[in-house]
Amino acid sequence: MKSTLEEQQAFVTVVDSGSITGAAERLGITVSGVSRALNRLEQKLGATLLRRTTRRLELTEEGETFLGHCRAILAAVEIAEEAMLDRHNQPQGRLRVNAAPSFMQFVIVPVIGEFRARYPGITLELDTHDRFVDLLEQRVDLAIRIGDLEDSSLHAKPLGHSPLRLLASPSYLERCGTPQSVDDLQHHSLLGFSQLEHLNRWPLTRADDKPLHIIPTLAASSGSTLIELAIAGEGIVCLADFMTIAPRQKGTLIDVLPDHTERQNQAVNAVYYRQATLSQRARLFMDFLAERLPGKYLQG
Fold first, then answer.
1. CATH architecture type of domain 89-161+266-292
2. Cβ contact 188:235 at 8 Å
3. CA–CA dist 146, 21 (Å, integer)
4. CATH class of the 162-265 domain in this structure
5. d(CA 290, CA 208)
6. What does the pLDDT look like over 77-136, one tens digit per residue?
7. What is the DSSP code (8-state) at residue 235?
8. Buried b (16+ CB within 10 A) or exposed e, 161-189
9. Closest Cα to residue 19, out of 55, 48, 49?
10. Residue 295: left (phi > 0), alpha (psi -120 to 50), or beta?
11. With 90 as the cut, is the pLDDT of residue 239 above it?
12. What is the CATH number of domain 5-86?
């Protein structure tokens, strides 16, 4: 007897959610319903797909092999359904997008209303995380990555670039003075990141020709917090342009050491796994961002 799509979906969802209970919540069915689907599937295949313990589920070798086939089958069915909807120009379904919290807040959220008005049938789930997530494990259809891409398993569509610059509030510079050289920064309050150390490398070169890696005087885990601290006059910050458009336009943050700042553009890409077939929904969202972001939020 052949397995059904329902049984395959239950199996994949259990793996992705890490538990039968989690899969039941995602699928909107009972825990016993998921368990029965798994049992039927294993009986039909004559193989154990998951080892169940009191604390976790673990894929067997057979489960690993069958999982890849299930993902491909379910993706093909989804694409076929989308193709039929596309014939009537009615893209529908769920689209989960992942991005860093600051990019989501300052760039994606402001244009979401326009996308939803254009494609009302697409249900968006906006997921944020400071660190790169596994797209398959987190069931992410499309992710926005900032900086160099090191994962060769990803397809990437460039959306633009965002320069880095040093900024401070006028009140801070009036109180503490305006630095005239890179060395002057050692006498100032420097605002930096508490968790992502690479973000504390500023686009400046010291007198000994070494890049400047600051030790923050005041650290925070998010760019949003650092912006508010800088506006409040707590120190000098270095952030990507897409985060600081509004305060720079209002004059609540102004450039610091612009003549000493090296041109460093952070690449911004929309990414998805090479082995995944890009859904129509993801394509539409990716093309929308590529059309909407350059010029206002990103440089081309």
1. 3-Layer(aba) Sandwich (3.40)
2. yes
3. 34
4. alpha beta
5. 40
6. 877 776 666 555 678 888 989 898 999 999 999 999 999 999 999 999 998 876 665 666
7. -
8. bbbbbbbbbeebbeeeeebeebeebeebb
9. 55
10. left
11. yes
12. 1.10.10.10
In which element (H, E) is residue 202 found? strand 201-205
Residues with Cβ within 8 Å of 3's Cβ and at least 6 positions away in sequence, in order, are 40, 41, 44, 45
Nearest Cα neighbor of 240 from 195, 180, 298 is 298
For range 37-65, the mean pLDDT:
87
How high is the pLDDT of residue 104? 95
Q: Indicate the average pLDDT of the chain.
A: 87
Which residues in 20-52 are b (16+ Cβ under 10 Å) and which e?
A: bebbbeebebeeebbbebbebbbeebeeebbee
CB 226 within 8 A of CB 193: yes
pTM of the model: 0.70
* 8 neighbors 34 (Cβ within 8 angstroms): no
Element (H, E) at 14: helix 5-17
95, with CB counted inside 10 A (0-12, 13-18, 19+), is buried
pLDDT at residue 72 tops 80: yes
Task: Enter the tokens of residue 21.
Answer: 């209970």
Per-residue pLDDT band for 57 (boundaries 50, 70, 90) equals confident
Tokens 């093909």 identify what position? Answer: 76
Query: Where do you find CATH 3.40.190.10 in the chain?
Result: 89-161+266-292, 162-265
* Residue among 26, 125, 124, 122 at smallest CA distance from 82: 122
- Could you read off the pLDDT of 168-216 as tens digits, one per residue? 999 999 999 999 999 999 999 999 999 888 889 999 977 777 778 999 9
Q: Are 232 and 168 in contact (CB under 8 A)?
A: no
Tokens at residue 168, please? 């401070």
CA distance 200 to 219: 10
